Structure prediction request, 345 residues.
Amino acid sequence: MTQGITADGGEYLRFDGGTTEELVRFACSAGTIPPVLHAIEAARVATAVRDSLVLSAALSGLHLVGMTILVGTAIVIALQLISRAFSGVSNAAVLVPASRMLLAGLSLSLVSGLLMVMPRASASLANPIFQLKMLALVAAVTLHIVVVRPLSRRDPSSTRLAGAAQVLLWMSVAVLGTMFTLLE
Amino acid sequence: MQPFLASLEASAVGVFVRESMWGFAMVAGGHILGLVLSVGVLAWFDLRLLGIVLPRVPVSTMFRRLMPWAFAGFALMFGTGLTLFVAYATDAYPNVWFRTKLVAITLAGANALYYHQFTEKTIAQWDAGTPPTAGRLAGACSLLLWVGVILLGRGMAYTMF
Prediction:
């Protein structure tokens, strides 16, 4: 790192190359990364993910498996709540296992997603697509807990809107996640 | 083989995917969305075969309700997958992750075919209950193979792009 004075009298800091860890330390000292995010990005687990292609690919794969479980389950819930597709069983018979599946998919996606974001926490949190994804995720989880899960004993005519809203929200999480990865 | 792969890459589709601003993002995004849709819904059918979810819903009802969504997802996934291969044929062809992924997809297809050609023939006897060992095995193999396809696909993406 080189410190100096520019031609118009201002101060500058220059990164002269080095490891990613040194780059993060530099960005923090230059004030471009808040200290908390720096601590996250410099954590040993974050460095391990950043430096390992195999680990990154495995986490990305597990994240996608989690997302697959979430979207598939959201479609099953929608089919039941919108059209009683699985005739002969109550909404509860679908919603109870579906909630467990959502929890499994969410746990897998959250843990793998957290580990993938840690090495680039500051860039991810500043990304508007990532922010929208997090917003859609919070909305989808809240809708499931507050509205969808308690619909166990209602008939389909009063559950259509919730069924459609939840599948749209979970699909949005998947679409935004894909866009975030591809456009980053 | 190499000239053929190069000609695929030089085609209008290949050039569009590689060089246009949104081409790659649109096709790769469609590929991933087709995957989460098809495999996500298929997983529920597989879990029903295993007797883990919705044991009181007939297997035939599960198939009828879920498969249109799975087929739509598969169509999107295979269409975009083929387009991606055209655009990156010379890199994809020798990629070991890609080759293993193709083997896993073929095995998943053979597993589905075997289930529909043989195991499903006796469905009247177990439709509303627990499928026989062959049915449960088909569900377990399908789940394992598709998870494998997802992981191999990510391995391919990380070693190619």
User: Anything to note?
Assistant: The radius of gyration of chain B is 18 Å. The longest helix of chain B spans residues 59-87. The helical segments of chain B are 2-10, 12-19, 23-49, 59-87, 89-92, 96-117, 123-126, 133-160.
